[in-house]
Structures
1.
Amino acid sequence: MGPTPYTFPLVLLVLTTQLSIAIYMRSHHPFSLPFILTAYVFGGTLNQNTFLAIHEITHNLAFKSLRANKVLAIVSNLAIGIPYAMAFKGYHREHHKYLGEEGIDTDLPSRFEALVLNNVAGKTFFAYVPLSSSLQIMGADV
């Protein structure tokens, strides 16, 4: 397959949209209904797109050049509050290398996650709060 020419312009479009919405919404109170709905619908969708773009970029599917892929991963990470794009690549490589091996595969839940997230409330929290994934990537045992 190889690199796709659509990744770079889509990353720029999503980043520009996120920054534009942030500038537009700065006059709204963070607990106002328009702010919350915008954050939920647009923020959640655009952030998920960014996470998926970083995933594809770490597989070097945006450009042929490794350096260009790294730069794009950093740029695409700008709108996310936690800088994780560079750390993600190492963890994701381990995930592919040790797929399904407990204690090594970084995509398997930790014992704490398996205990706490083993019900509807826990799964709902995990689905709507990506913080636990970001903390896991940064090395915290959550």
2.
Amino acid sequence: MSELGVFTLVIVFSFSLWWLYKQHHRQVIQSRANLLNGFAKVMTVSETHFNAAGYASLKGVFNQTPLSLRVEVDNLTARKIPVMWLHIKLPNTPAINGSLDILVRPQNTEVYSPSWQWDQPIKPLAGWPEHARYMSRDVAPELQAIDADVRTIFADQKVKELLITPDAVRLTYLIRQADRGNYLLLRSVQFDDEPIDSDQIAALTRQLQRLQQNLIGGKNS
């Protein structure tokens, strides 16, 4: 085969690989974009945004309350299978006094948690999660007012963090774990691309709303 023929084959092969990569990349981005597709049936969606990796965030109204949802992939922890979190956030109207962060199984790699910059430890109530970090930025809200809510929320082992600030309450929830085989063998981060169960998240949001109502009715500790 002539040099021109070999060069032509290399060009065709390289283009084919590039085309297959682009096709796969489009499919991955589309599957990521579809993760929050089912939420229009449980909330009125007013805004949809996508980050550089194609993961979505939504803003809208749920049960007459503003709601924000954001997907985040955590692959920063060494020797740990990457995971996908969903942040569920409700603004406090009116604003409350005090702050509290409950972070279970802390590893100091939770970049989404502001409490690593907080310096006021809080003593938890009896029956609250063990192996958790309890911190406040200043003073905590009335803990007794949310005792039952905290117990109920953290009964679900997929709950990672409950964050309470004057302006909002936020729940961080484990949605997916990356495919173990692909990650251990190839260091490839692949998740199940089925849409997230909107009914499950709606139930968590209703529980967060109940906690919020009890916060607004409570006082500082």
3.
Amino acid sequence: MRKSTRDPALRSASAVRTARFLLPAALSLALLAPPPALAAPMTAGRDGGLPPVSFGFKGGLALAQHQGTTPRDMQYTVDSGMRTSLAAGVFLVLPVTDRFSLQQEVLYVRKGSRQDIGVSIFDVPAVLQVSYDMDYLEIPVLTRYRWTRGSAVDFYTLAGFGFGLKVGDRYRLSGLVDDGTETIPLSADSDMSEVDMFDFHFTYGLGLEMPVGGRRLLLEYRFDLSLDQLPLPTYADVPFGDETTRVENEPVPLRNQCHLLMIGIRF
């Protein structure tokens, strides 16, 4: 019998990455197709019974940034800023008890960051403006706990994990190198197809929910932090005469993080 020559460590690493992708996907499919017993109308939880299965829509402001995870080269200075954009999607709430529920969501979230990088190029100080735009279709699987019971306004907390599929991205860089006698422009404008299209993240948050016109209005804050480092590009295109030369640099490992301020309605 032929023995496998594949390194067990490689098989283990591959299995872990596969599991990290398949587990959230399996949970998503299971929760999006609740069994008939859960899908049937239930008595509202105010009288002691389980609340009904419900769904809703939410949207709001996304304040995204990148977090460094390794010590920075002291030759560089970085002033990191947020990408201010939007997030929106749908959600499904599956009660387990009158306080505890599972919440499944499908969200479109725009993440990224803005960076001002101070660096010495050819012994000449320069400041480069860099923007990373990364748009994701995300599927979080969250636990939801309602801390109040019997009151008109409910306070709840959320925690869980999710995975994102990158559906759009853009890397842009601009700057000038000026040694006093000559000014050289630096630029870059391209996609980031070399960056992993999957992003796994941890989510926690809190919210308030209140009755409005027979529906439930919710106000929610949440924070997402990626579990994986993403190797983001840092190259620049430099003109030399009639040609342009690309100066390659090592990618910088960063994590996505995002604050979400959302308003929604639950039916």
